[in-house]
Amino acid sequence: MDSHILKTHPDSTIECRQLSDEFLEETLSLMEKVYFAEEKIVGAFGLTQDSQTTLEERQVMKDVIEDGVSVIAIDKNNNNKVIGACLNKIHVKPGSGEETFYGKIAKSSKASAIKSITEFDDYVIRKFFELCQVDCVLEFTMISILPEYRNRGIAKTLYQIVIDLGRVLAKGVNAKKSVDGRELALEPVPETIVGVCTSEKAWQVGEDMGFKLVATLDYEKFKCEEKTLADVQVEEISVVSMINYRHQDLLNDDVLWVVRILGGKIFQCGVVKFVIKLTLSLYSFLLLAQTYFFVFAPDADQLIQYGPLFFQMCYATLGMFVVLLRNRMIEDVMEVIDLWDVKSAGEEVEIDDDDQVFFTNCLMQKWFFGHSKCLIVLIKLTFFVAAPCMTVHGYQIIYTLQHVKFQMYMFNKYVEELTKGFTTCECKLLFDEVYQNEVNFRLKFLIKRHCDFLR
Length: 455
Prior knowledge:
Helix content: 40-55%
Structural class: alpha+beta
Protein name: N-acetyltransferase domain-containing protein
InterPro entries: Acyl_CoA_acyltransferase
GO molecular function: N-acetyltransferase activity
Strand content: 5-15%
Keywords: Membrane, Transmembrane, Transmembrane helix
Distance between the termini: 36 Å
């Protein structure tokens, strides 16, 4: 992976890249002035900019940056000014009696606010390992954008780069970049990317990026100077989210990958699009010629004889037109409904070889008698383009419905196991608080899942 420019923002003046030494100090200053001044959790713990706190917060950032997976955004038109940064940390599950990255900082910290913040972070990271059932996670540790550059999609671009970095690492490609020129080892490799959202707006961004809600945190459980976070926090909720890299290589895991290619991927290739455009131009001309023939058809027999073939070409032309303009049905649907593994596919479809003479052959004989054979061969060659365009929508429907069907099976299974794990009698269940809370959680999950389908 290119370690210089990773992604160009839709605004071509903005470049997003991995953090390097030349931008380190400017990035640290940006996070100090913006992130630590605006982040609600940081504010709730009463962080102040005294010398000890500033020293420790800067050291924490440097320790996070050492993992080589932090990214920044710069403005090329403003002397490559750092306008945003996303600092990220790779965490390995601690063994019995061992401390997390944050736990070590909390024990050694002399600044009370840093100690409280890292104790909170230590709890969250341990919660991630518990919920995600993995041994290594990549955490969105802190992100900030300069106020004058906000609402331009820069944060989403930075998030996407980090997600892509995680995917590359999961495939065994070492894309880490140190800020001091050292060569970083590929290990540890994150299995999951995680993050904590401390506002509804932040969660909406995470949800748009494809993250999944795995837990909510109760602010009443966390205290700072005898006050709970609920007493000082502006927002009411904090959500924990994740993306699992173990099932991200969808094309290789997808049993219906052939259908996926025939249903859209092949038609997104530039060369194929060019060939379809040429074929569409030829078919459009032939349709106009046939339409002219129909208008001045000498008798009804020819209308009956060649009518079906005329409409067949109309369908092929329409298929090519739609493929060029609207050919992302699978991608659009899968952005809403997750692609779960499917272990079986349908039987192969046999296509008969039909050498039927098309209506255009009659026109070639009538109008271009001396060159009719060459023109007919040329037209028949276009069938290799027209035929896939006519079937692409069927493949898209088959592909999508197979996964929707599987989703419904899974939903039905969740409903059947709504009360699984509870063996007490019905009369006791009415007064069993644990049972009531668990069933309430499961019902909310099912309702949200159902709403996702209706979305």
